[in-house]
Amino acid sequence: MRKGLEDLKALGARTVDVSLPNSKYGIAVYYLVATAEASSNLARFDGVHYGHRTPDEAGLVELYSRSRAEGFGAEVKRRIMLGTYALSSGYYDAYYLKAQKVRALLRRDFDKAFEACDVIVGPTSPTPAFKVGEKADDPLAMYLSDIFTITANLATIPGLSMPCGFTQSGLPVGMQLLGRPFDEVRMLRTAAAYQARTAHHAQRPPV
Question: Which of 22, 75, 123, 150 has fewest C-beta within 10 Å?
Answer without folding.
Answer: 75
